[in-house]
Backbone:
């Protein structure tokens, strides 16, 4: 196999996903995951080390961008609503999966806790991509949904850290460096973005500056056995006002999204699809269906009634998107496999459910439950 074959296949899949998305009106992230799963199971594409690294960076970049879309003022005003929806979105699936795996399947405690953590997640990357494509990221519904997703993933990350990760001096270093970078970035980034010697340059120093910050998170997270997605999201959250204050910073945000969506984030979704083994899932199809049903039903039980109260015009849409999973679900599953808590079949079933939850609820939400005003936004943009 020629060295350039996999990059060629990856490029073709990225382009093909965009064309299918434009043709069908479905979220491009969902198409990329499906194409990745097909290519991986047919043996056309395999996740090489460079591809996995770009994909992991793509997930962190998406998480940062998602943080910039959260309206901090709205999050403060609607803290109770976002916290209740986000916490219930985590707690109910966590308890449901834990009880089923430990008492029903007789898995050991560690495997049960890993499964509960993996299936309690909500994918900030999927939700952000869908909200941006539909125009809902600029609405109060979209911003509240992003805030609730942040709460869910924060709970998942804390659960994974408290239950399994053994802190070391490098873990402390990761936390200290992350907090220091976040404080400095939120204070001085505006100067960097508005510097007349740097702005509107073809070499895009502002985008490279953001990439360096995220790569710092990645390096120290790996060193400290942590996850870079949380500091990336937090930095995006705290820098969200920077990207709306001036026309210059708005332009930086648009350019950053263009760079991200061209190659980096598609690699994240395609590699996510590559991790699904159809053969292993088919060998445990009954377990796969039960896990998927438990995740969706428990998410529904945790989210729908709260969303019905606080987001009456988009309760089902909110519930379906909060049922998605990808980044943290995969992270938890990989951790369980590498630590010896999960066997290969358990791992494949969990990852398969995580990926399926990124596709199926998203498809249903977009096809039948998308709030009507998002279409109005798209129509308005076409007229500009």
Residues:
């Amino acid at each position: 196999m020629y060295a350039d074959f996999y990059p060629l296949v990856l490029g073709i899949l990225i382009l093909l996903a965009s064309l299918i998305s434009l043709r069908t009106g479905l979220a491009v992230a969902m198409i990329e995951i499906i194409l990745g799963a097909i290519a991986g199971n047919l043996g056309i594409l395999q996740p090489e080390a460079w591809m996995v690294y770009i994909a992991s960076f793509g997930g962190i970049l998406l998480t940062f961008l998602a943080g910039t879309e959260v309206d901090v003022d709205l999050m403060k005003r609607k803290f109770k609503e976002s916290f209740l929806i986000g916490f219930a979105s985590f707690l109910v699936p966590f308890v449901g999966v834990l009880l089923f795996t430990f008492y029903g399947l007789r898995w050991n405690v560690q495997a049960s806790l890993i499964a509960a953590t993996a299936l309690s997640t909500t994918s900030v990357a999927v939700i952000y991509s869908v909200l941006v494509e539909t125009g809902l990221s600029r609405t109060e519904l979209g911003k509240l949904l992003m805030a609730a997703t942040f709460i869910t993933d924060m709970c998942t990350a804390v659960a994974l850290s408290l239950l399994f990760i053994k802190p070391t001096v490098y873990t402390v270093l990761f936390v200290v460096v992350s907090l220091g970078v976040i404080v400095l970035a939120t204070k001085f980034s505006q100067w960097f973005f508005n510097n007349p010697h740097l702005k509107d340059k073809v070499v895009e120093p502002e985008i490279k500056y953001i990439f360096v910050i995220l790569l710092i998170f990645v390096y120290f997270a790996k060193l400290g056995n942590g996850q870079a997605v949380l500091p990336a999201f937090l930095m995006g959250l705290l820098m969200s006002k920077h990207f709306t204050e001036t026309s210059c910073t708005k332009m930086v945000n648009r350019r950053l999204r263009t760079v991200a969506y061209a190659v980096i984030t598609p690699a994240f979704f395609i590699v996510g699809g590559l991790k699904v083994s159809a053969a292993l899932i088919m060998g445990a199809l009954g377990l796969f269906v039960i896990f998927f049903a438990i995740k969706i039903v428990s998410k529904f039980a945790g989210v729908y009634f709260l969303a019905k109260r606080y987001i009456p015009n988009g309760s089902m849409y909110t519930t379906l998107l909060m049922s998605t999973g990808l980044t943290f679900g995969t992270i938890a599953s990989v951790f369980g496999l590498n630590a010896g808590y999960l066997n290969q079949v358990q791992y494949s079933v969990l990852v398969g459910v995580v990926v399926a939850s990124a596709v199926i609820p998203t498809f249903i939400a977009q096809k039948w439950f998308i709030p009507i005003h998002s279409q109005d936004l798209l129509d308005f943009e076409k007229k500009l």
Observations:
- The chain has one domain: 51-383.
- The longest helix spans residues 247-274.
